[in-house]
């Protein structure tokens, strides 16, 4: 683990460990190319082998620390462009052309991050123990195919990922910030809320209105993946499929930036799926981007000390609940990390 991600504050701001995080759309990593990404406090190299399988590793050559993302893609391995050291997909030094047979060859010298693909995105496992097997990867039900179809909307915002979580777990803002939206113009501007526990998290919902506006959000932490699900009622003019479901995952880039993945889903199949996809691309997508842009403008304009100067009320109990859940787990993980022996740094002469 990168040295700076060790305290509970680090883990809160950059993301809990022992979790799968979406890091980028699948289309960002093309065959024959090397892609550099910063995610969750880690410096990552992404590439595909000859079969198209994606691999994720540290963006650091074990020889001198040069960026492997500036190297050469060799099909089944990467060559550092500084001194030609070659590493395979398992992080093992396959060849040291400048000194054949040296002790570095055959040694696993590079951290490898387990990676999976699904629903148009690449997911990476960030583990507390670098050598432990990850939790088996499993997508949320609306992203798993079957009777569901989805479009992925990907964004990068200049604010903490925690502000996006606040926004997603705050249904009340829909009746104000998005009042002029084509789907959130109706419903009351006042509401009473309750928190309902589930086996995988909790639901925050209005007690006096349902199926009218943005009336509930669900926080889910299950199978090593965290996400928020919510429904937006859709008029019949928006085509078949019932409510418009959003599955959202957010991933810290650093303390002040994050990547957002918003899957826009409907439960459709057959001809209804074709109809929904046509309507979405030709009529609805632009409107949804407008709503998301309203959220971005609000989140990016929040001051750095916003949490310290809040005056919360009943509509904000989901925010308080989620922050406590995340802080509690961050504190637990920080205690685990504090007991780990730091990696030994070879002495220099």
TrEMBL record:
Rieske domain ranges (all copies): 20-124
Superkingdom classification of source: Bacteria
Gene3D superfamilies the UniProt entry points to: Naphthalene 1,2-dioxygenase Alpha Subunit, Chain A, domain 1, Rieske [2Fe-2S] iron-sulphur domain
Key words of the record: 2Fe-2S, Iron, Iron-sulfur, Metal-binding, Oxidoreductase
PANTHER family on file: 3-KETOSTEROID-9-ALPHA-MONOOXYGENASE, OXYGENASE COMPONENT, IRON-SULFUR DOMAIN CONTAINING PROTEIN
Protein name per its UniProtKB record: Rieske 2Fe-2S domain-containing protein
Natural source organism: Saccharopolyspora griseoalba
